[in-house]
Amino acid sequence: MTEPGIASSTGSQFTSDLRRRNVQRTEGPSLVHDDTKKVEKEMHLEPDSILPVLDRWEPLIVPILLTALSIFTRMYRIGRSNIVTWDEAHFGKFGSHYLKREFYFDVHPPLGKMLVGLSGLLAGYNGSFEFKSGEKYPDDVNYTFMRAFNAAFGVVTLAKHLMARVANLRGTDVGKDSPLEIAIGSRVTLKNMGYGGGLLHSHIQTYPEGSTQQQVTCYHHKDANNDWFIYPNRHEPDYDPHAPLRFISDGDLIRLIHGQTGRNLHSHAIPAPITKSQHEVSCYGNITIGDDKDHWAIEVVDDVASKDRSKIRTLTTAFRLRHPVLGCYLRAGNVNLPQWGFKQIETTCVKENKLSDVYTHWNIESHFNDRLPPGDPGSYKSPFLKDFIHLNVAMMTSNNALVPDPDKQDDLASKFWQWPILNVGLRMCSWDDNTIKYYLLGNPLVYWGSTFSLGIFGLLIIWYLVRWQRGYRELSQADIDHIHYSGLYPAIGWILHYLPFVIMARVTYVHHYYPALYYAILTFGFCIDWLTQKLNNKFRWVLYACLYTTITGMFMYFRVIVFGIEGPSQEWSHLNWRSGWRI
């Protein structure tokens, strides 16, 4: 029976404080400081035991060993395959854009692609190779150095982000040689100013229902189908390229004529294809054929560079386009059309007059007019923070637009639920017998062990919460802190990095799980450490040795998929442990 005021090892007390929480506890005089315990524990080990030595030098030995292994696994035979493999087709191309000083848009943050460009620069690459998937590298491209340079960043860890610089728009056509003020007869591209907005776009394809007229969409990629000519309305004289220039301003009534097809931007009282509560927008007629439904009134919202609204300016003026017949506003609200619309953004005419609706705001992104001089680049400045938010939302929107084509079978794509259980792998290149083949597959023990540990950790938390609720106090503050920092935070990190792919509409692949996997591995390590902390020290070392040996053995067993499969893949069919693996 336990003395009053002193907690037993089970948490039970045979006093009036039974099953009460927050019971004051008196520390017994026999408690020993943790460091003293550790010293005594080491003193009881055999004098000739190597365990204390390993324990003392572990913080130095383990990082050096793991770094060496990391270098080996990343660098060994890295130049063996001489063809463009997997994402080299994308990121090599991105690096070429940097080397050629060309601006481009992509859904990924820029640092990794800038490093690809730097690797090419250091390797003497000039940016001319197209990096087509499966294509053989030319002799003048030192692809081995470029691969090794980028692989090295998987080895080192940067402790601090020392410097960040804002990239400018050097190399882009945005604002380049664009006249500042817009005139009748100008050729322009119109950018929707909503978060993730695209360029006003049309193409020869027609709507499958509704008016069946030419489609009008918003599109994030630049091509000639984004060009529009600004023309007078039908109640004014026809445009004369030799007449004096007439600049457009707030309140003007204009027509927008599609540059490639010559049709007018048009709207009518027909429901939009997706958002049925709004009007359809189409292209109709031509320069001479049409009606008042081809007219659009300009309503200036803001100008970040000037308070003068008498003229519309490239990039800086935000305006709305109101349809005078229907009283609606041109809008692109990031609703994707079906496959018949090429997954582009639905463009409609919305009835509600909400000045705060940024998806009805537009600006002129590019402006071409031979009769006007180029504008001063300093006139196009805009707030950095606003541009930063727009860019990141545009990346997110484009990322979500990468949805799988339901009419095509994508053997490389996978679902989120398949990753934690290692249900599938990924072929990273052609599976031809004459090709060096690579297969993306995780270490089975690491994957399955880390996934299992997430469930174990959840049960541990429930166990301790229930016992705390019932008045048990077996955890010290140091134990609680250890659970928080070594167990709970990695588990939360796994959730935060895994959950987005559960709700994401875009096509997903095996490697999308890797950020979450690292957090699961940390949780795996915590669970092993926590569940074995009360075991004999020698037994723990044996257990750890078994785990390390098994994980290393797994790697050696599957090493051929890492360093390259040569010859017929049928020779390695014994590696297909699961039906979803296609080695």
From TrEMBL:
<dbReference type="InterPro" id="IPR036300">
    <property type="entry name" value="MIR_dom_sf"/>
</dbReference>
<comment type="similarity">
    <text>Belongs to the glycosyltransferase 39 family.</text>
</comment>
<dbReference type="InterPro" id="IPR003342">
    <property type="entry name" value="ArnT-like_N"/>
</dbReference>
<feature type="transmembrane region" description="Helical">
    <location>
        <begin position="513"/>
        <end position="532"/>
    </location>
</feature>
<feature type="transmembrane region" description="Helical">
    <location>
        <begin position="541"/>
        <end position="565"/>
    </location>
</feature>
<protein>
    <recommendedName>
        <fullName>Dolichyl-phosphate-mannose--protein mannosyltransferase</fullName>
        <ecNumber>2.4.1.109</ecNumber>
    </recommendedName>
</protein>
<dbReference type="InterPro" id="IPR016093">
    <property type="entry name" value="MIR_motif"/>
</dbReference>
<feature type="compositionally biased region" description="Polar residues">
    <location>
        <begin position="7"/>
        <end position="16"/>
    </location>
</feature>
<feature type="transmembrane region" description="Helical">
    <location>
        <begin position="445"/>
        <end position="466"/>
    </location>
</feature>
<feature type="domain" description="MIR">
    <location>
        <begin position="179"/>
        <end position="233"/>
    </location>
</feature>
<dbReference type="Pfam" id="PF16192">
    <property type="entry name" value="PMT_4TMC"/>
</dbReference>
<dbReference type="Pfam" id="PF02815">
    <property type="entry name" value="MIR"/>
</dbReference>
<dbReference type="InterPro" id="IPR027005">
    <property type="entry name" value="PMT-like"/>
</dbReference>
<feature type="region of interest" description="Disordered">
    <location>
        <begin position="1"/>
        <end position="38"/>
    </location>
</feature>
<keyword id="KW-0808">Transferase</keyword>
<feature type="transmembrane region" description="Helical">
    <location>
        <begin position="487"/>
        <end position="507"/>
    </location>
</feature>
<keyword id="KW-0472">Membrane</keyword>
<keyword id="KW-0256">Endoplasmic reticulum</keyword>
<comment type="function">
    <text>Transfers mannose from Dol-P-mannose to Ser or Thr residues on proteins.</text>
</comment>
<dbReference type="InterPro" id="IPR032421">
    <property type="entry name" value="PMT_4TMC"/>
</dbReference>
<dbReference type="Pfam" id="PF02366">
    <property type="entry name" value="PMT"/>
</dbReference>
<feature type="domain" description="MIR">
    <location>
        <begin position="309"/>
        <end position="367"/>
    </location>
</feature>
<dbReference type="GO" id="GO:0005789">
    <property type="term" value="C:endoplasmic reticulum membrane"/>
</dbReference>
<feature type="domain" description="MIR">
    <location>
        <begin position="245"/>
        <end position="301"/>
    </location>
</feature>
<keyword id="KW-0812">Transmembrane</keyword>
<keyword id="KW-0677">Repeat</keyword>
<comment type="pathway">
    <text>Protein modification; protein glycosylation.</text>
</comment>
<keyword id="KW-1133">Transmembrane helix</keyword>
<dbReference type="GO" id="GO:0004169">
    <property type="term" value="F:dolichyl-phosphate-mannose-protein mannosyltransferase activity"/>
</dbReference>
<keyword id="KW-0328">Glycosyltransferase</keyword>
